[in-house]
Amino acid sequence: MGSDDGPPALSAAEALSAYTVMVQARAVDDRLWQLSRQGRAHFVITSAGHEATQVGMALAIRAGHDYVVPYYRDMALVLALGQTPRDLLLHAMGRAADPASGGRQMYGHFSSRARRIVSGSSSVGSHLVHAVGLAFALRIGGERDTAVVTSFGEGATAEGAWHEALTIAGIQRLPVVFVCESNQYAISMPHHAEVPVADVALKAAGYGMPGEVVDGNDLRAVALAMRRAMARARADGGPTLLECKTYRLRPHSNADDDRRYRAAAEVDAWRARDPIGRFGEVLVREYGVAPAVLAQIAGQARAEVDQATLDADAAPAPHPATIADHVFGTVAGAAPRSEDQRHA
Amino acid sequence: MTTTEQTLLEAIRGAMHDALAWDARVVVLGEDVAVKGGVFLATDGLLERFGALRVIDMPIAEAGIVGVAIGMALHGLRPVAEIQFADYLYPAIDQILNEAARMRYRSNGDWNCPLVIRAPFGGGIHGALYHSQSVEALFTSTPGLKVVVPATPHDARGLLLAAIADPDPVLFLEHKRLYRTLRGPVATGQGATVPLGVAACRRPGRDVSIITYGAMVHESLRAADALAHEGVDLEVIDLRTLVPLDRDAVLATVRRTGRALIVSEDNLTGGFAGEIAAVIAEHGFADLDAPVRRLAAPDVPAVPFSETLEDAFMVSAAKIMTAARELARY
Ligand SMILES: Cc1ncc(C[n+]2csc(CCOP(=O)(O)OP(=O)(O)O)c2C)c(N)n1
Ligand SMILES: [Mg+2]
User: What is the domain range of residue A96?
Assistant: First the structure.
């Protein structure tokens, strides 16, 4: 198994671009908290700490080809799939040009049909069944070589819909990779209060699929495990449950105070193992990247986020007259009825 | 276009058969739908004809069935999911209301969810609390979801084909008491769809408008025939779809008769009859010669089993006659 101590699993170009996305994601996250304190972003949900897991996942995904059914924590993932800091700031500020929802959903509900990133609700665990349906549709259409990835927290595994999704995927042996971003808390609730076994991966046995635990703060370990799981899915070898053990470095959201349920010393200990710093060291040590290059990447990310903030700030809000747009689509061949006109 | 005599069940089965034959995007999924052909045999023979990739037996997982249908629809398929009884839509409500109904809106029109959920509903068949419910009011208050309740074999086929062709999620509620008891002419052929959102006048009349849907259409028609002998002339409007609602048809019938009796098999409080009453009160007040009247089931949690209790629960032609007579005299 590849890890920080194993053989290099990524090319230098892959490693450097993965690092760039991780840094960019953290810069966006930093900015969102700042905007929240300034009252310019109403809702922030963090991805800080999850970057190695999410960017590692993306290394096994063909963007725009494989389907991705993410959850609210997945900002670094959607960046790695090609969304931009500008897209994310438009989303966070609820602008009309927000590509995820046109200003309808609060931040964290990423979506782009063109990139095959599927829109989700806020209802925890409700989206895995959509991934299973997409995989089913791929099978029905005979579209081999395409897989579906869906992600969620360990708390979500307590939900009924989570169980139904894995049951159906297991029965039908569908090409889905289920990725648990196992960060030890569901808001305030520790792992043992949501999950009755030590590892979410152990649950896989009950659904007839392989389960694997990886170090979610080790980018290469995640990428390798994901590539194995995706290869199995693409080769019609069935689903996988992958548990990436990681840690959320900030409160759950801007409405949360994490001092109420976890010790500062615990958070500090995990900060010392920040996945971005850790992978930066790998770049220097194993890939011979000069520290100055890393500093340059960080500076570039900050500048990009500054520009994205200016752009989003200046972008128009949705017009109130558009509130009833996209409730229903247009029925082919149907004439508009007088009632529709009255309410138009 | 040819016309044949079919039961409601045959019309529904035929619509699914033809949709599967005409459109490669259509798939059918649900509990016991493939090998057995459905507990009511609504999907009988479809597995043999279309194979296991398009007629799919699913485990007892209603949120999973609807959620999988959503995923299929997102990829461009046209899934028709069967929930074995409407009483078991509850485990899937998060998927239906929070996911399917809100998908288009929440993505600003980027994604849409063209799926149909079929479910047998309704009482009067000794099905007791959990095989008799009328659940439509739980679903009519979330814009983004269409709700269809056919009352005739012709409509069942035509509306189901229109629902499958519709670009948005449709809940298709089939009254199980009508499955085999109702026969009628059905126009077949690809063009014979019935558009969603258009009510039908089943019987023109001068004195009182009955506005109803589902099995209550037939109870109302029986009541109208009987009252005709007493010189009371009822008009019967079959809404056919609750969302979108044909408000024009509701207001037009009130304009003709000046008296509205809304008949619903659901219980009274919070039922869809209240919405019809509100539409008339807001937009048809000047046309009324009498207060709007609702006739619905008593406010008890569900349909009880014992025949005496079930009869007390169900709205019948006799109860409709009493209410209509009073309203005509007002
Ligand atoms: C059905 C539902 N119940 C409760 C919530 C409130 N809620 C939002 S996130 C969350 C915790 C989820 O924890 P986990 O699945 O571990 O993911 P994490 O946030 O840790 O990444 C809760 C309880 C919700 N959004 N949806
Ligand atoms: Mg968690």
Answer: 12-342
Give the Cα separation of B167 and B109 in Å (integer): 11
Cβ within 8 Å, pair B71-A137: yes
Instruction: Please report, in tens digits, the pLDDT of each residue of chain B (330 residues total).
Output: 789 999 999 999 999 999 999 999 999 999 999 999 999 999 999 999 999 999 999 999 999 999 999 999 999 999 999 999 999 999 999 999 999 999 999 999 999 999 999 999 999 999 999 999 999 999 999 999 999 999 999 999 999 999 999 999 999 999 999 999 999 999 998 888 999 999 999 999 999 999 999 999 999 999 999 999 999 999 999 999 999 999 999 999 999 999 999 999 999 999 999 999 999 999 999 999 999 999 999 999 999 999 999 999 999 999 999 999 999 999
A326 min Cα distance to partner chain B (Å): 5
Instruction: State the CATH class of domain B200-328.
Output: alpha beta
Is residue A318 a contact partner of residue A329, using CB atoms and an 8 Å limit?
Answer: no
Task: Look up the CATH number of the domain holding residue A295.
Answer: 3.40.50.970
Task: State which residues have CB under 5 angstroms from ligand 2, the bound ion.
Answer: A 153-155, 183, 186
Distance CA A218, CA B74 (A): 33
- Known catalytic residues of B? 131
DSSP letter string, B263-304: EEEEESTTSHHHHHHHHHHHHSGGG-SS--EEEEE-SSSS--
Given the CA of residue A126, which atom of ligand 1 is nearest to it?
A: 1
Residues of chain B in contact with residue A131, where contact means CB-CB under 8 angstroms, are 71
Q: Which CATH superfamily is domain B2-188 in?
A: Thiamin diphosphate (ThDP)-binding fold, Pyr/PP domains (3.40.50.970)
Q: Where are the domains of chain B?
A: 2-188, 200-328
pTM of the model: 0.97
Chain A residue closest in CA terms to B248? A339
Domains B2-188 and B200-328 share a fold: yes
Q: Which of A91, A140, A149, A322 to mutate to test the interface with B (most CBs of B within 10 A)?
A: A140
Q: Which of A53, A124, A188 to mutate to test the pocket of ligand 1 (most atoms within 8 A of CB)?
A: A124
Q: Output the CA B96–ligand 2 centroid distance in Å.
A: 26
Task: Give me the amino acid identity at A286.
Answer: E
Q: Distance between alpha carbon B71 and the CA centroid of its chain, in Å? A: 25
> Would you mind telling me the total number of residues written for chain A in this entry?
344
